[in-house]
Design brief:
It is a single chain. The chain is elongated and about 60 Å long. The protein contains four helices and no strands. The longest helix is centred in the middle third of the chain and has 26 residues, at 25-50. It folds into two domains: 9-50; 53-88, no CATH class. The relative contact order is 0.06. By secondary structure, the chain is mainly alpha-helical.
Length: 88
């Protein structure tokens, strides 16, 4: 098999690939889910650090803006505004 990573020792890469091949679909899904959760958490934390003076609602809006763009962020802000006005 062709090496996948030039900066990783070939033996370590082979061991990792063997582990991945032996993993069940459930184990693979759990790893992907964990990586996704970690990525989201780190992204939100970085936004909060950069914009420490923002409210939670503003931070959520910034997250949507950075991940999905201004059009969806504007729609999200309108939704959040409507939702907050509808709650007692």
């Amino acid at each position: 098999m062709k090496r996948q990573s030039a900066d990783t020792d070939a033996k370590m890469e082979a061991a990792w690939i063997a582990l991945v091949r032996r993993a069940t679909p459930g184990q693979k899904f759990a790893q992907v889910r964990s990586l996704s959760a970690t990525t989201l958490s780190l992204s939100r934390r970085a936004i909060a650090r950069r914009h420490g003076d923002c409210t939670d609602a503003q931070l959520r809006g910034l997250f949507v803006y950075y991940q999905y763009g201004s059009e969806l962020a504007d729609r999200f802000q309108r939704y959040e505004s409507q939702r907050s006005h509808a709650q007692p």
